[in-house]
Amino acid sequence: PPHRPLYGRHVLVTAGPTHEPIDPVRYIANRSSGKQGFAIAEAAAAAGARVTLVAGPVVLQTPPGVERFDVETAREMAEAVNEALPADVAVMVAAVADWHVENRAGQKIKKNGHGLPPLELVENPDILAGLGQSPGKPPLLIGFAAETDNVIDYAVDKRQRKGADWIVANDVSGDVMGGRENTVHIVTADGVEDWERMDKERVAVKLVERIADALSR
Ligand code: C5P
């Protein structure tokens, strides 16, 4: 039915940041409110999909009809994503931290006047690129790219490098982080679509329409 165009589809969404502990009271993270990913999960559920939302630490309510799994670290997120497969569509919106702290301390690190604590950083798994290469790759794999400059060039490159079908590039040089609105560009094999600045909810609804359209072809 036209009003539930994703009925029978499984949509997997990642959202929010990941937190990579340094010690029990400190962590490394990227800035992310989770709003855009949650809005996409909500719009996909409203379009009739079964939606699995893998969320990093955020303060947002679970949208109606969405099954949510909360995780803290990138490695936990990667595991939750793998457990949620198979999916018809994966929309990877999470701002995953690039590194975790290999020598995380079990107790609070003290400022002791003897210099700075050495943090050994180790690269996290790239969840999007991992899915892009996996035999379980969802038929439609969508990544996000938050950039402050050369937004389109980086997104075109990222689409290729990560094996994604589409990249939604957002220009975060302004007040997009944590804000209500977003300016996005949709990078596909066919080229680039520039969308006007709009609410994150509207971006979500339009993206879900675009997804339903692509799946119906
Ligand atoms: O490389 P960059 O972090 O800019 O790529 C952004 C895209 O890759 C987003 O879709 C993000 O969710 C995904 N990503 C991921 N796992 C990572 C890093 C990024 O899934 N470790």
TrEMBL record:
Keyword line: Decarboxylase, Flavoprotein, FMN, Ligase, Lyase, Magnesium, Metal-binding, Multifunctional enzyme
GO CC terms: phosphopantothenoylcysteine decarboxylase complex
Membrane-crossing residue ranges in chain numbering: none
Entry's family note: In the N-terminal section; belongs to the HFCD (homo-oligomeric flavin containing Cys decarboxylase) superfamily. In the C-terminal section; belongs to the PPC synthetase family.
Superkingdom: Bacteria
Function: Catalyzes two sequential steps in the biosynthesis of coenzyme A. In the first step cysteine is conjugated to 4'-phosphopantothenate to form 4-phosphopantothenoylcysteine. In the second step the latter compound is decarboxylated to form 4'-phosphopantotheine.
Native species: Altericroceibacterium spongiae
Residues covered by the DNA/pantothenate metabolism flavoprotein C-terminal domain: 7-213
UniProt name for this protein: Coenzyme A biosynthesis bifunctional protein CoaBC
Region (Phosphopantothenate--cysteine ligase): 11-217
A single BP term in Gene Ontology: pantothenate catabolic process
Gene Ontology molecular function terms on file: FMN binding; metal ion binding; phosphopantothenate--cysteine ligase activity; phosphopantothenoylcysteine decarboxylase activity
Positions of CTP binding: D98, K108, P125, D126, I127, L128, F144, K158, K162
